[in-house]
Amino acid sequence: MTLKAKELTEKYRLHEKDTGSTAVQIILLSSQIQKLVEHGNRNRKVNFNKKRKKERWKDVPAKRALLEKNARRRRFYQYLVKNNSEIFQKLQSEKDSARFLGIKDKNA
Question: What is the value of pTM for the model shown?
Answer without folding.
Answer: 0.79
